[in-house]
Amino acid sequence: MLEVENLTVSIDNRTLLENVSISIAEGETRMLFGENGSGKTSLLMAIMGLGDYKVESGRILFKGEDITHLPTDERARRGIGIMFQRPPTITGLRLKELLELIERDNRDMEELARSLNFEKFLDRDINQGFSGGELKRAEILQLMVQDPDLVLLDEPESGVDLVNIDLIGRSIRGLLQKDLHKHRRKSGLIITHSGYILDYVEADKGCVLVNRTIWCTGNPHEILEGIRERRYEGCLTCQR
Amino acid sequence: MSEIKDRAEEAKEKRAEFGPDISLEEYTLDAPEYGARPLEEITEVDRERLLNAGVDVTGAERSGSFIQVDNSVIHAAPTQEGIEVQSTRAALEMYPWLEEYLWQLVRVDADKYTASAELNFQDGYFIRALPGAKSVFPVQACLYLKAASISQNVHNIVIAEEGSELHIITGCATDSPELSGLHIGVSEFYVKKNAKITFSMIHNWAENIAVRPRSGVRIGENGVFLNNYICLQPVNSLQLFPSAYLEGEGATARFNSVLMAGPGTHMDVGSRAVLSAPGTRCEMIARSITTGGEIINRGLLVGEVEGVKAHLECKGMILKGGGRIYAIPELDGRVEGVEMSHEAAVGKIARAEVEYLMARGLSEDDAVATIVRGFMHVDIEGLPPILKDQIDSAVELSNKSLL
């Protein structure tokens, strides 16, 4: 589904990612661990083609196609969706109107909103005055309507209270077709700082970003346990 | 009346407080006479231009219609009982008491334009809702410029009697985009006890038209006045600064404006509200976009008694093509215990917002258009759906021209 090959990315002549390679198969969910400032969000932004990120070398393949220099909207239309960690407010644009603009397959928006207990927000301006949990639910609702094949989630559990984390976890499982044990087509790359989301969404693999590059890949629970025990400094002593 | 005329004579050279000065001599008062006719006899070409200004010439879903071309009132008739629609001249003949309503809320000697409206009076509309009457559909009024270099001088009177409700949509337009002309319109609104007026004005002028509306509003006890002003098409010079006098306890006024100025357009637009009775409220919301023109956004709130509440919000966006937006929000609290506030902002389209929408699959152009449309979307409480649709389609039309 996604192949990132030796990707080096900079912004204002500052290198943010160095020789990053990552491969995510169809139906696979990948957890991406890393401390603050390690480049996790930069990787998602680069895959989505956002911001002033400049690809210095390497390439990004999606479903076999080189999308390294495609504009963001083209990537979205090819099936990549992203949950923003800090989405902007757009005054005067109601959530419902945005959903109508991005809707592709006559999905029942009201029903999807109800599944997130979010129907009363449909007539609100997008993200205007939303709490942390509401922002996440708005992002997930948009992704549900967009129905991407590859979902990029940037810290889906941050700012979410205990009541809503289960709801959000369940919705993410839906996005990633976790109820299908065969023929699962949806893939995910999920950034997590705390690893808390692993209690709600099972991942096939985990990897760690340290010092701007992917340091290791393996069982997500083992990686998380290792980080909890030895922190990220421990990763540096670990054999790659 | 001779005193009024004398004051007008004295003020006929007087420059206005705001806006570029216009030489009235450059315009003519001469125009052909156009005979009165039913709506269905309006020509196809005129129909389309009227429609762009929000006037539905079928007259369907309207409680009455008024159309004035240059100096001639070609149609004035209500279609609902309890609602009166006629020319000001005819109304003055019918109701001698109407004299008392003239020049009460706008000073005849305010400037050369008000003076001209008196000295060169060429009719206008009189719209009234009788006590307790409620307009089911909006009343539509259109002031139309057709003759070359015409100076149109009208005086409009709108009265919502006690407990009544009036929705008015006014569209102003010109016969051709090349036409040059001057529109001077004096409007006086009387919102009586427990009455409500929603007044939506869509201006659809042309690049060589100068416009000087002069309006005043008096709002009585628990009266409500909602004013929506939309000007998204080119105009040479537009200056207006209506005043609302909230004189009855619990009176409410709300002014919304949505403006767009391209190169060559100069707009000096705002509103003023004087809150002089307990429990009065006022809100002003302005959204301005320039793609190369100049917009001066004024707003003045005057709080004269304790406990009044008023807020002013003025936001501007400078798009590709540059231009200027100059926001001048003013608060004048004259006693202890007034609650008045304002917020003003001028900026550009945030890149993060464009990218956010692009990440959902919208092209860059569509993302920009969506953000601009949202910016111009003013949530107008209590607006009948038909007026909302009209405003939305004006915004939509201008949005397309941005791309």
* Biggest sheet record of chain A: 6 strands, mixed
Order of helices and strands of chain A: EEEHEEHEEHHEHEHEEEH
Shape designation of chain A = globular
Extended strand count of chain B: 20
Q: Give the structural class of chain B.
A: alpha/beta
Low-confidence stretches of chain A: none
Order of helices and strands of chain B: HHEEEHHEEEEEEEEEEEEEEEEEHHH
Largest sheet of chain B: 10 strands, mixed
Low-confidence stretches of chain B: none
How far apart the termini of chain B lie comes to 52 Å
Question: What's the arrangement of secondary structure elements?
Answer:
The complex is a heterodimer of chains A (240) and B (403).
Chain A: E1 2-11, E2 14-24, E3 29-33, H1 40-48, E4 54-62, E5 65-66, H2 72-78, E6 80-83, E7 90-94, H3 95-102, H4 109-115, E8 125-126, H5 132-146, E9 150-154, H6 162-175, E10 187-192, E11 205-210, E12 213-218, H7 220-237
Parallel strand pairs in A: 3-10, 3-11, 6-9, 9-10
Antiparallel strand pairs in A: 1-2, 1-4, 4-5, 7-8, 11-12
Helix pairs in contact in A: 3-5, 5-6
Chain B: H1 2-11, H2 44-52, E1 64-69, E2 72-78, E3 83-87, H3 88-94, H4 112-119, E4 125-129, E5 139-145, E6 150-160, E7 165-174, E8 180-191, E9 196-204, E10 208-219, E11 224-231, E12 237-240, E13 243-246, E14 252-261, E15 266-275, E16 281-290, E17 294-303, E18 309-318, E19 324-333, E20 339-347, H5 351-358, H6 364-376, H7 385-402
Parallel strand pairs in B: 1-5, 4-6, 5-7, 6-8, 7-9, 8-10, 9-11, 10-12, 10-13, 11-14, 12-15, 13-15, 14-16, 15-17, 16-18, 17-19, 18-20
Antiparallel strand pairs in B: 1-2, 3-4
Helix pairs in contact in B: 1-4, 5-6, 6-7
Can you describe this structure?
The complex is a heterodimer of chains A (240) and B (403). Chain A is α/β, with parallel strands linked by helices. Chain A has a single domain, classed as P-loop containing nucleotide triphosphate hydrolases (Rossmann fold). Chain A has seven helices and twelve strands. In chain A, the strands form three sheets. Chain A has a six-stranded mixed beta sheet with strand order 6-9-10-3-11-12, sandwiched between helices. A four-stranded antiparallel beta sheet of chain A has the order 2-1-4-5, covered by helices on one side. Chain A is globular. In chain A, 43% of the residues are buried. Helix content of chain B is 18%, strand content 42%. In chain B, α1 crosses α4. Chain B has 403 residues and is α/β, with parallel strands linked by helices. Chain B is globular and about 65 Å long. The longest helix of chain B is centred in the last third of the chain and has 18 residues. Chain B has seven helices and 20 strands.
